Structure formats: C-alpha cells, structure tokens
UniProtKB/TrEMBL annotation:
It comes from Chryseobacterium geocarposphaerae. This is 4'-phosphopantetheinyl transferase. PANTHER family: L-AMINOADIPATE-SEMIALDEHYDE DEHYDROGENASE-PHOSPHOPANTETHEINYL TRANSFERASE, PHOSPHOPANTETHEINE TRANSFERASE. One of its GO terms (molecular function) is holo-[acyl-carrier-protein] synthase activity. GO terms for cellular component: cytosol. Residues 104-172 form the 4'-phosphopantetheinyl transferase domain. InterPro entries: 4-PPantetheinyl_Trfase_dom, 4-PPantetheinyl_Trfase_dom_sf, P-Pant_transferase_sf. Pfam families: ACPS. Belongs to the P-Pant transferase superfamily. Gsp/Sfp/HetI/AcpT family. Keywords: Transferase. GO terms for biological process: lysine biosynthetic process via aminoadipic acid. Gene3D superfamilies: 4'-phosphopantetheinyl transferase domain.
Amino acid sequence: MIKIFYTKFNPEDMTAILDQWLSILPFQLQKINQSYKNKEDQVRNLSGKLLLAEALKNIGYGSIALDTIQYNQFKKPYLSKDFDFSISHSGRYVFCVIGKNLKLGLDIEEIKPINFSEITNIMSNSEWKQINEASNPLRQFFTLWTLKEAAIKAEGTGFFTDLNTIKVKGNTIHIGDNIWFSNKLVFDENYSGHLVTSNLERGYEMIFKDLTIANYDKKK
C-alpha cells in the first residue's frame, strides 16, 4: 500500500523544530538546510527529510541514509529502484509519499489568489474555459495545477515538461504516450492536493506526524 506521511507546523514552533531535529540530519543535508535564508523554508526542508526517513523505516528501508539521495537528469530525487517517493510542501503543510513497485508523484498547494493573466501558457484553451466556467475558478485552477505538477513529478521530468501539453481527462493525466492515474487528497479545505501513480492504485494510507518536541519521538 502507498503511505503518505504529512505534518503541519505553526510559526511559533519553527525555532523549536529546527533546534530539536536539524542535528539528526547528515552533515551535508544540514548545510543545505541552512543555506535557506527563510526560516519557513528551513522547516519545510527539514520536515520533508524527517518524513522521508519515517517513510523509509515504515516500508523496511530504514538503513538507507538520506545523504545517498541521487538525482536523474531532470533533478528528480531517488534512492532505490525498488520504491519511489515524492515530497511536496505549501503553506504550513509538508507531505511525503512512498510506494513500492510503481512510479508516483504528489503535489499540494495552498489555495491563494493568483493573477490568471500572468500564467496563461500553463493551461490549454479548453482548460481555461473549464476554469472560468467553474463555480469556484480559483479552486478549479489549483485542482488542475496539482494534477499536472504531481504528474510531472511522477514522470520524472519536472518542469522540463511543458504544462500546457499535459492533458487531464477525468482521473487520468496524459503526458505523451504515458498515462497516469490520480487520487484526490482531502486534508484541508484551503488546500488542493493530488497523488498520481503509474498503476491504477486506489489504496493509500495517510499518516499524520507531529514534529513538535512533545509529540514526536526521534528514536523511533
């Protein structure tokens, strides 16, 4: 089964989270984390790595070191051919999904006002028509956006793929000859999120992890 680990942090907890958990990362990953100037970005980066470590232990790969992450030619991270993972963060949420024997991608986005006129090239004319005619155009935009971004993460090409060429057809996303299957993530009405997989995989488990000092045991 696919496992989705996620967390939510509050501004008042950010310093405590960094103080408590940053030191357990491999030194090179600590340096990368500290290169972020914004404390929220540091917490998001750290949280993603902690969730990935938890996910690896959960599926029996706890011995894999986080600093052995490699990247394909399009900068998609990977650790093993036996499983795939994807990390996404937006606002106060951080998600990490992991699954064996398939390809997958996940994207979450906080639903915030956006100027559609500045991003006309990322949707097709029919998709813009669908957005503009929706009862909630902003939510419909982020629905399509998270579907497309999750798909290019699964595809492994990231934004090297032109989003305008990706076709969303019901619960499937088409990138060239490849077909991806989508699952909507329901976790907060102010966010949009989707999981995309290479198989018609409907089963997944969402596991919340509280990274505040009092509620998360780093020895697990």
